[in-house]
UniProtKB/TrEMBL annotation, chains A, B:
It comes from Pseudonocardia oroxyli. Keywords: DNA-binding. Residues 33-52 bind DNA. The keyword DNA-binding applies. This is Transcriptional regulator, TetR family. Residues 10-70 form the HTH tetR-type domain.
DNA sequence: CCGAAACTGGAGCGCTCGCTCAGGTAGTTT
DNA sequence: AAACTACCTGAGCGAGCGCTCCAGTTTCGG
């Protein structure tokens, strides 16, 4: 029988993770605090440290979840055209949040594995969609992501960049 | 006659800017505070707010200086080969610092101009060194920078990525 | 229906933060 | 040398921080 107590807790826990991601996207990793996340999720501050061992734990858990999501999304793309459309459809604010977390992972040895996971996913995608020029496509994709985070990228331009040999 | 007092002040001001960049590289933008920078530059904390209107002003000034330096460096590269060598020679820690500042600029409207300045410099370089495939080279260069910040990139691999058509 | 377990939330501790300010020090001018 | 002024600084304020603690509430199994 499902325990109603645990179920209720799980809902709050998830709400906190989503609130954290929103705070990161809006104001950056530095703005993530027990009190700001609690306010964003509309729970009392003490709830944050009931569901997570520390504020840092909350942040790291959020990072892993986001990485999971992005990697899964990339793995399902069937073609270079779909990839270009994917890049063009990304929300700049969400990408900025992603880079905030990327930077956090780059700085901390214990999160290095998340970084290599992301790199490996991009490399695998490039090798799958463009085996003869995988290195360039992987680099160009990373470059497109960066550009998409600021000025945005439209699908035609993305496709032009990714189809490097035509 | 030059006022010795003013000259001494200028030296301290510069020391604070360099200390700020070191702190950003080592511990991130979030670690930049009046007290940490003062300790890094070996000046009393109050000196920080004597030379800069606020801690934020110090950070923004540092960002503009770093951007100046990077843009000037790119503008002088004579060939794709030199560009590949340049990327391979970059220090990962310094690149992480650069991305910290990039992210700061991405989030703040008043710093958007620094971002477009960087993008324009990269685009101009790509158009100069590889006119027939500028968009791809610009994206690939940004991708290489990102990779260089974590795992590092060797010169041969960078050249392979940048010479997209061979 | 009752004890246990999961959950809730407010109070508050020790700490660092950005910033202000009154006053001290040292180089310049007369 | 005295007056002036630009430069410099330690002390301290109010605020927000992570985190602990514990008394209260809800929901469960037996």
């Amino acid at each position: 029988m499902p325990d109603g107590r645990r179920a209720k807790g799980a809902v709050r826990r998830r709400a906190l993770l989503e609130a954290t991601l929103r705070v990161v996207g809006r104001d950056g990793v530095a703005a993530v605090s027990q009190r700001t996340v609690a306010a964003e999720a509309d729970v009392p501050p003490s709830a944050v440290l009931y569901y997570f061992a520390s504020v840092d734990d909350l942040l790291v858990t959020t990072l892993r979840e986001v990485n999971d999501r992005y990697c899964a999304e990339l793995a399902e793309l069937p073609s270079v055209e779909a990839l270009a459309a994917h890049v063009a459809a990304l929300d700049p604010a969400a990408l900025v949040a992603e880079y905030e977390l990327w930077l956090l992972a780059a700085r901390r040895p214990d999160l290095r594995s998340e970084l290599t996971r992301w790199d490996a996913t991009v490399d695998a995608l490039a090798a799958r969609l463009a085996p003869d020029r995988a290195e360039t496509v992987a680099a160009a994709l990373n470059g497109l992501y960066l550009r998409a985070a600021t000025t945005g990228v439209d699908a035609e331009a993305a496709l032009r960049v990714l189809r490097t040999q035509d």
